[in-house]
Automatic annotation (TrEMBL):
InterPro entries to which the protein is assigned, alphabetical: Acyl-CoA_DH_CS (IPR006089), Acyl-CoA_Oxase/DH_mid-dom (IPR006091), Acyl-CoA_Oxase/DH_mid-dom_sf (IPR046373), AcylCo_DH-like_C (IPR036250), AcylCo_DH/oxidase_C (IPR009075), AcylCoA_DH/ox_N (IPR013786), AcylCoA_DH/ox_N_sf (IPR037069), AcylCoA_DH/oxidase_NM_dom_sf (IPR009100)
Domain Acyl-CoA oxidase/dehydrogenase middle residues, every copy: 136-250
Protein origin, superkingdom: Bacteria
E.C. no: 1.3.8.6
Molecular function per GO: fatty-acyl-CoA binding; flavin adenine dinucleotide binding; glutaryl-CoA dehydrogenase activity
Similarity comment text for this entry: Belongs to the acyl-CoA dehydrogenase family.
Source organism of the structure: Myceligenerans xiligouense
Pathway(s) the chain acts in: Amino-acid metabolism; tryptophan metabolism; Amino-acid metabolism; lysine degradation
UniProt keyword list: FAD, Flavoprotein, Oxidoreductase, Transit peptide
Cofactor(s) needed for function: FAD
Enzyme class, UniProt record, top EC level: oxidoreductase
Catalytic activity: glutaryl-CoA + oxidized [electron-transfer flavoprotein] + 2 H(+) = (2E)-butenoyl-CoA + reduced [electron-transfer flavoprotein] + CO2
The protein's name: glutaryl-CoA dehydrogenase (ETF)
Domain Acyl-CoA dehydrogenase/oxidase C-terminal residue range list: 268-409
């Protein structure tokens, strides 16, 4: 008989781990070791104090985790599944740390990699990959969260410079960032007058009026008129930074505009990358909460026996493990499709909706296994559940992803 090799997590009821290659598992194990060594011993303090550990940013760069799914410019060029596993292990440590990697790599670096000019790519991507520079992604506004098409931030071409006015909200890392990818509306007249904006954006609607389109700009955060203020107090994502950003007549050079993919498809392509990371990351948070509950249930004695010996507790543990296994299978399927170039937008919505919803329920259930002790920062489930309130909301709420899937099923747009 051959020896049976058991999965590394008791939540893996179906030996899904055997579906990963040796290279994929090596990435997972390297990031897991980092989380065990640098995140878990410190996260209760970081979360309790509301501190983002900026000192670990260069370490994340050394591990190749910043823009790790991108090619060139010092990026690691890893597969989608490898990137997913890295997100999973980081979020098992804390959602705030995984969010940093997603903002830096999936949003900021992806925007520059997908839509930037060669000069912009050479200037920023190597530094961002090494963690020598930090970026933020300014799309969401105080009055335009789920509906970015209604944004009010605008950029005008004045004397060979872009002048940007507007406000953004819930912008991760903005107060410590070196560069901001700011999305603003630009008239086609101004775009047509800018060589860097590309004449392809010039278009006339039937009544002869000019359109406005959403365009991206690289804005140094040291620019006059750029202000970022951390949002406090928060009950979620406390080991992370989210900010209000105000832009008052911020002037940037004419070539600060991202020349490629004008329109909302520009930021949406980046959001899909971030949503993909959430599909995996939320599984990590759920797994960590489950393992904390399982360990506690085996050690905590009530009524003369371990809590794990009670039928109701076993039912909770079984249901949590089942949901985590299903979420892991969904993440793996989506990752394989992405690596094969066959992933469609509605599939990412299915994964984000299901796995974020699953994870928050698992973490809440895990907290009940811990009883009153579960409301302290000595244990991870409630911290994960609080973080997942944000994860479930950003990069598209449940409602938004439900309507994306509804549109896919019916062919009917129900947003408006």
């Amino acid at each position: 008989m051959t020896d049976v090799v058991h999965p590394s997590s008791p939540a893996d009821l179906l030996d899904i781990e055997s579906e990963f290659s040796a290279a994929e598992l090596a990435v997972r194990d390297r990031v897991r070791e980092f989380a065990d060594r640098r995140i878990r011993p410190n996260i209760a303090r970081w979360f309790g104090d509301g501190v983002f550990p900026r000192e670990i940013v260069p370490e994340l760069g050394e591990l190749g985790l910043l823009g790790m799914h991108l090619d060139g410019y010092g990026c690691a060029g890893r597969s989608a599944v490898e990137y997913g596993l890295a997100c999973q292990e980081l979020e098992a440590g804390d959602s705030g740390i995984r969010t940093f990697v997603s903002v830096q790599g999936s949003l900021v670096m992806s925007a520059i990699h997908k839509h930037g000019s060669p000069a912009q790519q050479e200037e920023w991507l190597p530094r961002l990959a090494r963690g020598e520079a930090i970026g933020c992604f300014g799309l969401t506004e105080p009055g335009a969260g789920s509906d970015p098409a209604s944004m009010t931030t605008r950029a005008r071409l004045v004397g060979g410079e872009w002048v940007i006015d507007g406000a953004k909200r819930w912008i991760g890392l903005a107060s410590i960032a070196d560069v901001a990818v700011i999305w603003a509306k630009v008239s086609d007249d101004d775009a047509a007058a800018s060589p860097a904006a590309s004449a392809r954006t010039s278009a006339v609607v039937p009544d002869g009026s000019r359109r406005e389109r959403v365009r991206g700009f690289l804005v140094p955060t040291s620019s006059a008129g750029f202000t970022a203020t951390p949002i406090e107090p928060k009950l979620s994502m406390r080991a992370s930074i989210q900010c209000d950003v105000v832009l008052r007549s911020v002037r940037v050079p004419e070539d600060a505009i991202l020349p490629e993919n004008p329109g909302l498809r520009g930021p949406f392509a980046c959001l899909d990358e971030a949503r993909y990371g959430i599909v995996w990351g939320s599984v990590g948070a759920a797994r960590d909460a489950f393992e904390a509950a399982l360990t506690y249930a085996g050690e905590r004695v009530q009524f003369g026996v371990p809590v794990a010996s009670h039928q109701l507790t076993q039912e909770k543990l079984v249901n949590m493990a089942l949901e985590i296994s299903k979420g892991q299978l969904m993440a793996l399927r989506i990752g394989r499709l992405k690596d094969a170039g066959r992933l469609e937008a509605h599939m990412i919505s299915a994964g984000k909706l299901n796995n974020a919803r699953m994870a928050i329920e698992v973490c809440r259930t895990a907290r009940t296994v811990l009883g009153g002790n579960g409301v302290t920062l000595d244990h991870s489930p409630l911290r994960h559940a609080n973080n997942l309130e944000s994860v479930r909301t950003y990069e598209g709420t449940d409602e938004v992803h439900t309507l994306i899937l509804g549109r896919h099923l019916t062919g009917i747009q129900a947003f408006r």
